[in-house]
């Protein structure tokens, strides 16, 4: 993936503190060819600006946004299991984007599109406002060290930005296997006037059946690690 020229992309939103580090971004020649071929089908470009979901998917539907889908197996499974809904994934890790597109093509999934860019810029410049029915953030980097806590993506400003793309009654669904981060998420979200906790004030939500268990999560369960789901509804 080429670096973006921030000067050329004004007035795109500039971000000073990133919540992610792009690791292992190199792809083999074969992966790159598959990426480019599948991108023509599934890819959405930051530079194209604001999109219209009806135009992108060719229909009116509930649209679910997921940020940080990793290698994409969970998102592909959700899209395959809910063909009546449409999904947009946002991920900065090119091999993960390539894998998701490959899975979608192999499984004949048509209700899925993807950005390979920073979610903050995509949300600010590309996604329609007040339209999406759900926004998903599953197992984001918890940035364990206290000095790095400011890099956690779940912050008051981010919660407001998510609210901007959600319709009234839409859901912001988070999940983490790191209890201190779950507590941080709860603290941030309980202060937001734009949301209401779907499980009740100060309560975590049971894992919905439709959220697939990732291999990472299954391994954690075997080791006795907890997982915390939080679902907040936009008022």
From TrEMBL:
Signal peptide range in chain numbering: none
Lineage, broadest ranks: Bacteria, Pseudomonadati, Pseudomonadota, Gammaproteobacteria, Oceanospirillales
Gene designation per UniProt: trmB
Any GO MF annotation of the entry: tRNA (guanine(46)-N7)-methyltransferase activity
Record-linked Gene3D superfamilies: Vaccinia Virus protein VP39
Organism name: Marinomonas arctica
InterPro entries: SAM-dependent_MTases_sf (IPR029063), tRNA_(Gua-N-7)_MeTrfase_Trmb (IPR003358), tRNA_methyltr_TrmB_bact (IPR055361)
Reactions that this protein is recorded to catalyse: guanosine(46) in tRNA + S-adenosyl-L-methionine = N(7)-methylguanosine(46) in tRNA + S-adenosyl-L-homocysteine
Protein name: tRNA (guanine-N(7)-)-methyltransferase
Binding-site list for S-adenosyl-L-methionine: 66, 91, 118, 141
């Amino acid at each position: 993936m080429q670096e973006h020229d921030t000067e050329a992309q004004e007035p795109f939103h500039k971000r000073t503190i990133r919540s992610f580090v792009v690791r292992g971004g190199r792809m083999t020649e074969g992966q790159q060819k598959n990426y480019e071929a599948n991108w023509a089908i599934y890819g959405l470009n930051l530079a194209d600006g604001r999109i219209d979901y009806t135009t992108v998917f060719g229909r009116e539907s509930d649209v679910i946004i997921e940020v940080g889908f990793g290698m994409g197996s969970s998102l592909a499974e959700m899209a395959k299991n809910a063909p009546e809904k449409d999904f947009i994934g946002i991920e900065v890790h090119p091999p993960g984007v390539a894998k998701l597109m490959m899975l979608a093509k192999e499984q004949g999934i048509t209700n899925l599109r993807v950005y390979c860019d920073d979610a903050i810029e995509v949300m600010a410049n590309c996604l329609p406002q007040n339209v999406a029915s759900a926004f998903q953030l599953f197992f984001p980097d918890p940035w364990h060290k206290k000095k790095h806590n400011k890099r956690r993506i779940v912050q008051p400003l981010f919660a407001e930005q998510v609210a901007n793309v959600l319709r009234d009654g839409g859901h912001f669904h988070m999940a983490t296997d790191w209890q201190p981060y779950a507590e941080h998420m709860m603290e941030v979200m309980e202060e937001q006037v734009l949301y209401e906790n779907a499980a009740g004030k100060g309560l975590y939500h049971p894992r919905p059946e439709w959220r697939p268990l990732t291999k990472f999560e299954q391994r954690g369960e075997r080791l006795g690690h907890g997982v915390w789901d939080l679902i907040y509804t936009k008022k």
